[in-house]
Each structure stands twice: as structure tokens, then as C-alpha cells.
Amino acid sequence: MSGLDRGNNCSFSDVDELMKTLQMAVHIPTFLLGLLLNLLAIRGFSTFLKRRPDYTATSIYMINLAIFDLLLVLSLPFKMALSQVQLPSLAFCTLVECLYFISMYGSVFTICCISLDRFLAIQYPLLVSHLRSPRKTLGICCVIWLLVWTGSIPIYSFHGKVDTYTCFHNMSDGTWSAKVFFPLEVFGFLLPMGVMGFCSCRSIHILLGRRDRTQDWVQQRACIWTIAASLAVFVVSFLPVHLGLFLQFLVRNGFIVECGAKQSISLFLQLSLCFSNINCCLDVFCYYFVIKEFRTDVMAHRPSRVQLVHQDTMSTRG
Questions:
Q1: What is the pLDDT of residues 159-189, one digit of tens each?
Q2: How far apart (Å, rounded) are the C-alpha atoms in residues 91 and 97?
Q3: Which UniProt keywords apply (predicted)?
């Protein structure tokens, strides 16, 4: 979503031409790899869901994340094609835009819930092991879907009442109003990032505090690196996008008027959106740790406190 301002004799043609080439270079491999990995993940976790009831909650979260990633992957070819042409039907353009942004924020909320679930498992492992249930986990995933579909309502007025438009471009002024933008920034990113940052830092702190009291320090050290890497990937994937959206908000509301600054902001926003899509392939690292854990027999006996910490840390993504 570039939200380009085509007025005031400020040309964005160079930015658009550069992004055409770059999007093909990034989106085509992302589409092929992401499609394969997420289909395999959904199939794999569906199997684990039946065979390993002790991992039901984790499997449900992972399937939900893989579905959101798959929706994002499927929207990429349409995003590349439709952003270059004008369609006679606005409805199809709106549908593709909805799928793209729903998948993005669905992933954000799912990852946030996984991070919170993991923190609770580390802080209160014995208590959480009794409170977690497939029904509650499935209910949380349903709430996430309800939130992202409800939050997609402003997308239906992205282009306003215009005769000429291009998908993911030419957003109406109403789209960039404060009443639409700030709820998106706060509830769609800042709040989830705050929750994830707190949970990840607290989880690392707790695990470091157990260094001298555990016999599984090598495993827990790997858990710490997993948490830190997952947090870093989340921030790198989504922080530039929302920074770019904020800068574009300033442009569309007249706070930034210099043409060169507008062009730079447009390029930065489109670049950050383009590279954030790679996140749907980075989830394969999450899938790897979950499948690796599933193939062990740590749950053959009643789990100890340390085993519960290791299970919930290595089998979820922050």
C-alpha cells in the first residue's frame, strides 16, 4: 500500500518502476517457497493434532499461523498484477486488499498470543498445563479472525468514490484520517509489539535466572536464543512497515510537503511492505522447532517443570 500522492506535480513514476522489478524479484520466490512450506505445515500439524493430544494447543496455534501465512502468499501474485493495472471492478480489488491486510494482522495477533501463552507456560508451567484446552485455544483463534475481519471494514472505502484507481495505490483521504490510522497503529501493531516484547523479555529473564538450578541449561539456552531471534524477526518484519505508514500519514495530512521527501517515504513504505512479506517464509524456523519437539518422546512420562518450560518455549514462536 503506497498511498501515493499524485498531485502537486510530484512524480512517483521512478519509484513505481523500481518497485515493479523489485517486487517480482522478492515476491515470486516468496510465493513459491511460502506456498510449499505453509501447505506442508498445515498438513503436518493437522496430523500431529490427531496423534499427539498433549500438543493440541500448540498445533492449533501453528495451524492458525500457517493459514494466515498461506493467505498472504496467495495474495502476492494478485498484488503484483493488480498494482500495475486498472480493473473495471472495484470489488475484486477490495477483496485482494482485504486478504493481504487480514493475513498480515492475523499473523501479528497470532504471534502475540503465542508469545503470551509461552510466557505463562514458563512463569506458571504447572498451572497453565491444567488451564490450556483445545476449546479455549480454538476460541482465541476464532476471536483473532473476528478481530481482523472487523478491522478490515475501512478497506472497503480505501479508494472512495473515484473512477480511476489502482489496487494498493491511490488511497482516499478518508483512509489516512486520524480516526482510521491511529487505531490501526495502536491496536494493530504497537499493543501486540508491547505484549510480545514484555513476554519475551520476561521469559528470557526467568530462564536466565534458572541457570544455576537446572540440569537442562543447554536446552534452555537454545530456548533463550529462539525467543530473542523470534522477537528480532517480528520487529524487523513489522516495525518498518508501521513507521512507513506513519510517515505516509504525515504526507497525506499535509505535514510533509517537499517532493523529495514524499518520494523517499513512498519508496520506504513500499520496500518495507515488500520485504515484510518474507516473514511468511521465516515461520519455517518456528515449524522446524515444533516438529523437532514433536518427534521426541519428552511427553512419554509426566512432564517435570523444566520439561514443560522446554516444550512451550521450543514449540512456539515469539
A1: 666 666 677 776 777 778 888 899 989 999 9
A2: 10
A3: Receptor
All three cell numbers of 159, joined, read 479508494
Long-range contacts of 19-24 (CB under 8 A, 24+ apart): 19/267, 19/270, 19/271, 19/274, 20/84, 22/271, 22/274, 23/79, 23/80, 23/83, 23/274, 24/80
d(CA 287, CA 34): 12
Cβ–Cβ < 8 Å for 38, 69:
yes
Q: How far apart are CA 35 and CA 116, in angstroms?
A: 27
CA distance 93 to 110: 26
pLDDT of 317 above 70: no
pLDDT confidence bin for 239, thresholds 50/70/90: very high
| Helix, strand or coil, per DSSP, at residue 89 | coil
Nearest-CA neighbor of 4 among 14, 89, 78?
14
Contact yes or no for 68/103 (Cβ under 8 A): yes
Place of cell 480489488: 93
Tell me what pLDDT residue 202 has.
93
Closest CA to 211 of 309, 299, 126, 118: 309
Nearest to 187 by CA among 131, 144, 138, 231: 144
Looking at per-residue confidence, does 108 or 130 come out higher? 108
Q: Write out 252-268 in H/E/C secondary structure.
A: HCCCCCCHHHHHHHHHH
Model confidence, pTM: 0.84
Q: What is the mean pLDDT of residues 248-257?
A: 91
- Return the biggest CA–CA distance within the chain: 71
Count CB atoms within 10 A of the CB of residue 67: 19
